C-alpha cells in the first residue's frame, strides 16, 4: 500500500510516467513470485486511448488569495488550459464566471476528480466550499493552468497466472485495476489508496499464496489499466483476450477493499445465486466478515465487460470506514485494512469451492 500510493508513482496515472511505473512494479512482483505470463512471453498487454492531462502549472488566486491545487481546487477533467486574470461575475449561489477567459468557478462541498478523453474550449474550476468562504466576496481571479491532450496515451494490463496441476485450461481469474487519477500540476497527486491500491495489494498477496500452493485449476491475475477512464483496460481485454473467454470458470474483481468493518457487497450476486449462497455460507462458517450483502448487475467496475460476454463474475467491495474517494485524501496512512486477511481467507475458500465440482449458475 505504501509503495503503490507513494510519490514515486504519482497516483498511478497520466503524469510523470506514473501508470507505467506502477505496471512495471506489478510485473516485477509477478516475476519475483515465479508466476508465468497469462499467454505468450509478455506480462503486459498494451493499448492506448486519449486523455486530457494537467502536467505542469496549476496555480489559482481568487481576490489575491492563493488556493492549493488538489486540496482547495481542481479543474474539471475536460478543462482547457488557461493563463490570465479577470473579473468574476456571480451567476447563482455556487457559480461565478470570468467571461473574458471562459472560466467557470463552481463551488463544491467535496472535490471529486475524474478523467476525460478530450479537452474542451472552456475551463471549469471546482473550488472547495470551505476554502472559498475564506476569500471574501469573489471579485477577481488569476489563473495559470497547463493542460496537455494526449491523443494516444500508452497503457497496459498486467497479466500472469499459476498453471493448474490437473485442469490447466480451466481458469479462475482474480482482477483489480491499478490505475488511478495521477497528478495535478507539479505538486498535487491523487494516491488512490482505497481506489484501488487496496485491491492490487490483496491480489498480489493472493498471487504470492497461489505461487506456493498451485491449484487443480489455473489461477489467473490481471491488473487493469484505464478503469478510471471508463473500464478501458477490461473492455480491451475482452475484445482481445489472451486466453479464450470460455476458459474462465469464474472471475472475481476487487475494487476498493481497504475497509470492511460493515462487511462486503457482491455485485452480480443476483446473477449467480448458487455461487453467492455458497459464498455467504463460507463466510458464516468461518465468521470472516460482518456481512456479505447482495447487489444486482451493475457496470461499476472491471467485472462488467466480462459478464456482458457471458463470463460468470463477481465484483467485491468493502463497506464502512473512511469515505475518501477520487481526492487527495485517499491515502494509505488512514486506510484501516482491518479485514484484509479475512477477505483473503474468504476468497481462498471460495476458489476452493469453485474447484470442487460445484457449478456456478
Write a brief structural summary.
It contains 7 helices and 20 strands. It is an alpha+beta fold. The chain folds into 2 domains: 7-52 and 151-354, 3-Layer(aba) Sandwich (Aminopeptidase), CATH 3.40.630; 57-145, no CATH class.
Explain the overall architecture.
The chain is α+β, with helices and mostly antiparallel strands. It folds into two domains: 7-52 and 151-354, 3-Layer(aba) Sandwich (Aminopeptidase); 57-145, no CATH class. The protein contains seven helices and 20 strands. The chain has helices at residues 18-33, 129-133, 193-212, 232-239, 273-286, 304-308, 340-354; strands at 36-37, 44-53, 58-62, 65-67, 73-75, 82-87, 89-90, 95-98, 103-108, 123-128, 140-145, 148-162, 167-177, 183-184, 188-189, 217-224, 248-254, 264-267, 292-295, 313-318. Strands 1, 2, 12, 13, 16, 17, 18, 19 and 20 form a nine-stranded mixed sheet that branches. The longest helix has 20 residues, at 193-212. It is elongated, with a radius of gyration of 22 Å. The two termini are 35 Å apart. The mean pLDDT is 97. It comes from Filimonas effusa. This is M28 family peptidase. GO terms for molecular function: metalloexopeptidase activity.
Q: In oligomeric terms, what are we looking at?
A: single chain
CATH class of the largest domain: Alpha Beta
Helical coverage, percent range: 10-25%
Cα-to-Cα separation, first versus last residue: 35 Å
- CATH names the topology of the largest domain as Aminopeptidase
User: SSE string, helix = H, strand = E?
Assistant: HEEEEEEEEEEHEEEEEHEHEEHEHEH
Protein name: M28 family peptidase
Domain Peptidase M28: 157-341
InterPro entries: M28_fam, Peptidase_M28
Organism: Filimonas effusa
